[in-house]
Amino acid sequence: MIERRDVFQAIADPTRRMIIHKLSQGPLNITQIGEDFGISKQAVAKHIKILNECGLILMSQKGRQQVCEARLDQLDQVTDWVTESRKLWKNRFEKLETFLNNNKKQQL
Question: Superkingdom, according to UniProt (predicted)?
Answer without folding.
Answer: Bacteria
